[in-house]
């Protein structure tokens, strides 16, 4: 593998080497780019399929791994359905990385709270890989994850691993439990009543569907988190990914260029932030 510089506008070819079923609607795609591909946790890529189209995704793999990139994709429409039908050996295009990722320096020295819902675990997994590798830099990590049903919980093996990591605590909830579920039943925000965290020493990251982020942020504000210590990864429809076309505008911001990660105080007054 060469280490040629990646051209931000031109896709790099990447071979699909493995497909992992995570839930009935979510799969992880392991890709091997033809050149080393670097990104910072929370940045996104544009993944393309020749003759079909492209869509933005945040890598779910570790930013410390350069020869392989994993994307975890929920089937949502035309492009994602075509990607879900791919078999090992298929060739895709990757361009990027784009945007501003998680502000790691604002998490160092803190009790980090991560609140995630559904496919929002994908970008969170990349952050957790990064923080696990640097766990001497944080006080502790509390991860609260919610999904609709036990079948929709993704990365089950990785959850077991996280529970064995020193300084890491994991709490899970499902909206609707089954007979085998022995964790919390209820919306993900109810997990915030179970955890023990020193809010003054903490910063929070929230990633998930808009409605979950809206209520998650509200609850964090209620328990005392200041607006500038809540970080959100925003998803808006995108096209160019480089701040030219305006598809991703959220008030004064280009989500592709200024985000996708924002602190709540930066975006709270912009229109339609939860749509
Ligand atoms: C920065 C960023 C990172 C993302 N990371 C991931 C990820 O890691 N995993 C993942 O599964 N998805 C992720 N998404 C969402 C993903 O890009 C969309 O699901 C995808 O573009 C839908 O394409 P489609 O052609 O399959 O659906 P379409 O046929 O285009 O649309 C299906 C539905 O999805 C909506 N939609 C389309 N594009 C987006 C979008 N960008 N954001 C939100 N809704 C959209 C449409 O309005 C429509 O309701 C991310 C989006 C952004 C902006
Ligand atoms: S996607 Fe074109 S400006 Fe952001």
Strand order within the widest sheet?
A: 10-9-8-7-11-12-15
Round the Cα radius of gyration to an integer and report it: 18 Å
CATH class of the largest domain: Alpha Beta
> Uncertain regions: pLDDT < 50 for 5+ in a row?
none
| Helicity, as a percent range | 10-25%
* Number of β-strand runs: 15
Question: Hey, roughly how much beta strand do the residues contain?
Answer: 25-35%
What fold name stands as the CATH topology of the largest domain?
Rossmann fold
Q: Tell me the CATH architecture of the largest domain.
A: 3-Layer(aba) Sandwich
CATH superfamily of the largest domain: Nucleotide-binding domain of ferredoxin-NADP reductase (FNR) module
Helix/strand order, N-terminal first: EEEEEHEHEHEHEEEHEEEHEH
Shape: globular
* Total helical segments: 7
Major sheet attributes: 7 strands, mixed
Topology:
Layout: E1 12-23, E2 26-33, E3 44-49, E4 53-57, E5 69-74, H1 78-84, E6 91-98, H2 104-107, E7 111-117, H3 121-133, E8 140-147, H4 156-162, E9 168-174, E10 184-185, E11 202-207, H5 210-222, E12 230-233, E13 249-250, E14 253-254, H6 255-258, E15 261-263, H7 264-267
Parallel strand pairs: 7-8, 7-11, 8-9, 9-10, 11-12
Antiparallel strand pairs: 1-2, 1-6, 2-5, 3-4, 3-6, 12-15, 13-14
